TrEMBL record:
Keyword Transferase: no
Keyword DNA-binding annotated: no
UniProt-listed Pfam families: Terminase_2
Protein origin, superkingdom: Bacteria
Keyword set, alphabetical order: Viral genome packaging, Viral release from host cell
Protein name: Terminase small subunit
Xref: InterPro entries: SPP1-like_terminase, Terminase_Gp1_N_sf, Terminase_ssu
Length: 174
């Protein structure tokens, strides 16, 4: 059930270009006319072994395009450890340039949560640390929002936020 060298070359060319006639010609088959090459190429695509080879190769190509769970978890871990960067455009009055930016605290907390969903633990110390990280993130977000709003009292916002977090903790404990 193996392909000849020309059949394999035809199939590989067809996978690259999607053009059966040109693939047939490039594979080195003798061609009297392009019309004859097209008919023979269509016949070649109907060959069970050639079709199976093409389908298998296409499946391999597609599987490499889609990230698997391990790849996603490794990416999350790199973000958590600040090993990933992203390009950010910074504009000035006269120019714009890009800089490499490490993940923010908020991004790191988000990927930590995603990782923890996959590796749940019941250790109360770790859960308390995760809650503290979440609370710190919320406080930082409230302070940033206040700076953007230019007027709201930071202490009132933070106190309200801490109170809301305390209520959530009591609700989760019940």
């Amino acid at each position: 059930m193996k392909l000849t060298a020309k059949q394999r070359l035809f199939a590989d060319e067809y996978i690259k270009s999607g053009n059966a006639t040109q693939s047939y010609i490039k594979a080195g088959y003798s061609v009297k006319s392009e019309k004859v090459a097209g008919v023979n190429a269509t016949r070649m695509l109907g060959n069970a072994r050639v079709k199976s080879y093409i389908d298998t190769k296409m499946a391999e190509i597609e599987s490499h395009k889609i990230a698997d769970a391990k790849e996603v978890l490794e990416f999350y871990t790199r973000v958590l450890r600040k090993e990933e960067t992203e390009e950010v455009v910074v504009a000035t009055k006269t120019d714009a340039f890009t800089i490499e930016k490490k993940p923010s605290f908020k991004d790191r907390v988000a990927v930590a949560k995603e990782l923890m969903k996959r590796y749940p633990i019941s250790d109360p110390i770790v859960q308390a640390q995760l809650k503290k990280l979440t609370a710190d993130t919320r406080i930082s977000e409230a302070r940033a929002k206040n700076l953007e709003d230019n007027g709201a009292d930071v202490e009132d916002l933070v106190s309200g936020l801490i109170s809301a977090i305390g209520k959530e903790d009591k609700h989760e404990s019940s």
